[in-house]
Design goal:
The chain has 250 residues and is mostly helical. The protein folds into two domains: 80 residues, DNA polymerase, domain 1 (Orthogonal Bundle); 144 residues, hpI Integrase, Chain A (Orthogonal Bundle), CATH 1.10.443. The strands form three sheets. A three-stranded antiparallel beta sheet has the order 2-3-6, with no helix packed on it. A hairpin with a 4-residue loop joins β2 and β3. α1 runs antiparallel to α2, α1 packs across α4 and α5 runs antiparallel to α7. The longest helix has 20 residues. The protein is elongated and about 65 Å long. The protein starts with a helix and ends with a strand. It holds the Pfam family Phage_integrase. InterPro entries: DNA_brk_join_enz (IPR011010), Integrase-like_cat_sf (IPR013762), Integrase_catalytic (IPR002104), Integrase_recombinase_N (IPR010998), Integrase_SAM-like_N (IPR004107), Phage_Integrase (IPR050808). Keywords: DNA integration, DNA recombination, DNA-binding. Belongs to the 'phage' integrase family. This is Integrase.
Length: 250
């Protein structure tokens, strides 16, 4: 069996993957693994061949990306070992580039407030940030620690006003331009405390909305897309207050 054929079979068996994980692995296989290694017979792959391939990835990929690509190949070959097709995993023990950890930058309380206010002032008519509660969304992201997909997938009924918590049970993922309702990362629902001041703002924001509707919807309805929010409002608002868009509020 050729490696390319084995990779297809291996991906088809991964019922544990979420849609985004499957799409990410498929892209890695098609773009980075099959063109160079796909025609090798599975049993002909050796450590030196894979090391040479992995070393070549660094010419176009960063250290973190190289490791992610190699991990996909290694995962598929480990399954081949379990299946009795290989005596050992030839992708184990490779010399891979080290991944540096850049310093993270956070906003203080005043900067979060300024960013929220700036987001609210942007847009016109139905797209205005204030009308859609997007300034409040900035504060929810800052003080509640939600991932983007979790914030997008937050429904009105997920807000427990009595206990002052957000019940994170959904996440919105985008695959091939289609938004899908999925489970949170690691399939783990979370209960997150909300500051009292934000809880009061949330109560006003969701007043009159149906229980199953998005807490923060797109201007035309439906789930809010991260790309639209970031490129349409967040980046511009960050520049308005003198911050770059990679900054994370806290």
């Amino acid at each position: 069996m050729l490696l390319g054929e084995w990779l297809d079979d291996w991906m088809a068996t991964r019922a544990d993957w979420q849609p985004t994980s499957r799409e990410r692995a498929r892209g890695i296989v098609e773009i980075h693994i099959k063109p160079k290694l796909g025609q090798y017979p599975l049993g002909a792959l050796d450590h030196q061949t894979i090391q040479k391939w992995a070393g070549g990835l660094s010419a176009s990929q960063g250290a973190s990306s190289v490791r992610k690509i190699v991990n996909v190949l290694s995962g598929s070959l480990q399954m081949a070992v379990k299946d009795g097709r290989l005596p050992a995993n030839p992708a184990h023990g490779l010399n891979l580039p080290k991944v540096g950890k850049p310093a993270k930058r956070y906003l203080n309380h005043e900067q979060v407030r300024d960013l929220s206010d700036a987001v609210d002032t942007l847009g016109k008519g139905m797209y205005r940030g204030e009308r859609n509660g997007y300034g409040l969304l900035v504060k929810i992201l800052a003080y509640c620690g939600l991932r983007w997909g979790e914030a997008s997938g937050l429904r009105v009924k997920d807000i427990d006003f009595k206990r002052g918590r957000l019940e994170v049970q959904h996440t919105i993922v985008e695959v091939d331009g289609v938004q899908l309702d999925s489970q949170p990362k690691d399939y783990e629902a979370r209960s997150i405390p909300v500051p009292a001041s934000l809880l009061a703002e949330l109560k006003v924001h969701v007043n009159g909305k149906e229980a199953g509707s998005p807490t923060f919807a797109a201007a035309r309805g439906g789930w809010l897309r991260g790309r639209v929010f970031r490129h349409g409002l967040f980046n511009e608002a960050a520049e308005m207050i003198g911050q770059d868009a990679s900054t994370r509020p806290r």
